[in-house]
Amino acid sequence: MKVKEKILHDSQGDDLAAEKFHVLCDSNHYLSSAGIYYDREPYANIDAVHVTRFLALAPVGNKDKQKFIHALSPTPASKMASAEISAKPPNTTLSPYLSSDETESGNGAIKRSGDNDSDAQYWRYDSSKKRQKHGDGDGGDRLCFKFMSSGSCPRGDKCHFRHDAEAREQSIRGVCFEFLNKGNCERGPDCKFKHSLQEEGRGFSGRSGSGTGSSTRSKECWFCLSSPSVESHLITSIGEYCYCALAKGPLVQDHVLIIPIEHVPNTLSLPPESEKDLNKLQSSLKAYFKRQGKEAVFFEWVSKRGTHANLQVVPIPSYRASSVENIFNLAAKKLGFTFTTIKNDNNSARKLVGMNLDKNQSLFYVEVPGGTILSHGVEENEKFPFQFGREVLAGLLNIADKADWRNCQLRKDEETKMADDFKSQFKEYDPNN
């Protein structure tokens, strides 16, 4: 140990090499020229979300009998979930390549002459094929790995890659990054991640699948009743065309979903008989909540990717009902857009939203107490929070810590009891009873 400390203390380092490794941000850095064994704590990188592990090996047959061989089994980043890549061990330190000024200021980014090389860092995890030069710096429609891993990107609007909140949410749920980015995965059945889009409230389970064909879709969809993945203990009412289920990780008590039995991408384009079934459940839930001194707020995220539709229903105290439309408009203003407002004349609001639905873009809409609908078509590359509706209502109800459903997960026995309690109280209002 004294030998190692002396060598490390006497070493002057190399500024050029330090900058090189600071920029490259490799996940593992091996050294043999120091003549000692040294296993450093992992350190955080500035321009990448993963940590780097530094290991120096001693010469073979060294007199101090220091370790000269090291076995490892690396997993390509392209085969890892974003949560695995960005995980930081408890003993993670700052980067040793930061200058004292950078450490004190908290800004460890080394300024470089151009963006192209550093932008490549955001894409270098795609090992399925050789990376191409950016040329004019345009990343096209490729996803920003930094944003996908951490939810933010220091380049902001200057980043040449796509910041897609919905794609990141799918990645968190265990969907293959390559599948999200290119629409297919060259690893096929050997990939340990999902090759189909996953519904809200469902986390990563490590199951794989090709994601092709209706049979695969039905098997992997959490909302298809024929799927082995459906959580039947959450179901509270089943009609001929729609069913009702408690939300996974509910925002409040009696937070439920109205779900078409058929695997359709939204509830705005349902056949007349399915729409009638959905309207019955809406009316019954409104009456049920009204008895409790509450009003129902309905909202839906219509994805252009075409997941199984679900209309979320959140009860709020009646005295807050008049504030719902205003708080959604304020939230929209903060994000830089304005809702299209559709008054519920002759119960036609939902129909009008459906008539103007663009299948090439995602849509968010919310039906506030009174029937008025606020809708917003999400433009390509627009930064729109995937859980926007839930986040706004969490703010209205002063329960911001519950904005993310993952903070509200319950044990299965707790979910079962909640579902049984709901069914018991909703029984006299249930149109399918």
Automatic annotation (TrEMBL):
Molecular function GO terms recorded: RNA lariat debranching enzyme activator activity; zinc ion binding
Residue spans of biased composition, Polar residues class: 89-100
Residues in C3H1-type zinc fingers: 138-166, 175-198
Pfam families for this protein: CwfJ_C_1 (PF04677), CwfJ_C_2 (PF04676)
Cellular component, GO annotation: post-mRNA release spliceosomal complex
Organism: Striga asiatica
Membrane-crossing residue ranges in chain numbering: none
Name of this protein: CwfJ-like family protein / zinc finger(CCCH-type) family protein
Source organism superkingdom: Eukaryota
Domain C3H1-type: 138-166, 175-198
Region (Disordered): 80-121
Keywords for the protein's UniProt record, in alphabetical order: Metal-binding, Zinc, Zinc-finger
BP term (GO), one: mRNA splicing, via spliceosome
Cited InterPro entries: Cwf19-like, Cwf19-like_C_dom-1, Cwf19-like_C_dom-2, HIT-like_sf, Znf_CCCH, Znf_CCCH_sf
